[in-house]
Amino acid sequence: MKKFSILFSISFIFFLCSYHTVNKKSIKVKKIVIDAGHGGKDIGCHGKKHKEAHIALAVALALGNKISEKMPDVKVIYTRDKDEFIELHDRAGLANKNNADFFISIHCNSASAHISGSETYTMGLHKTESNMEVAKRENDVILKEDNYKDNYNGFDPNSPMAYIMLQNFQNAYLSQSIKFASLVEDEFKEGLGRTSRGVKQAGFLVLWKTAMPSALIEIGYLTNEEEEKFLKDPENQDDIANSIYKAFKKYKSDTEGNN
User: Fold this and answer.
1) Structural domains of the chain in order of their starting residue, each with its CATH number
2) What is the CB neighbour count within 10 angstroms for residue 14?
3) pLDDT digits (tens, 9 = 90+) for 55-105
4) Which of 167, 193, 207, 241 meets the CB 3.0–4.6 Å disulfide criterion with 62?
């Protein structure tokens, strides 16, 4: 009986290891939703001449084109492909409805004129006041929606207490999201020589209800004059999109066990 128990235990452990290996290899990243922040009546932040909604859309479309051309096995879905207003809950809803494997939201940042650089966010509880300010600015868009209190369970984007509530809704895919976010910032820093402000967490409503790994990328500050010039250039927009593509390619390869 004792011998049987030992053999059973060994067999069971072997089964678990085999299952884990097969299960890991069975994970595929086949569908991605790319979200260009803001749009339509919501221009987002702006510099002296350029608006966040327009730059975010240009980078989002460039990223989607690269993925479609170089990864024919991946289906690309846009939350918007033109200058139109899409409510935040509909962006996450589109990703969930299509059973997407990843959700990327692209934005531009704003702050004091001397601040520059990129930062990539995952859903989580903010650890600094500056992180919460970024989330509040991006979440303010819901005030342009007709039924925002119903759509977001009474969430008030201007209430600090409301963000404490979000700690109970941290993304179940946090580790995968952080992995991708780190790859993005590495590509920006090492590939483009950009200033990286790192990977951060905050309560973004657009990421709140996504049932998959997700990240919100702030590609630069339009309130910085030099960075606005950089972000408006189509070649630089293409370079930014290419960096995000490279990060996604690495993430996909690692997730599928191809490394």
Assistant:
1) 31-255 (3.40.630.40)
2) 10
3) 999 999 999 999 999 999 999 999 999 999 999 999 999 999 999 999 999
4) 241
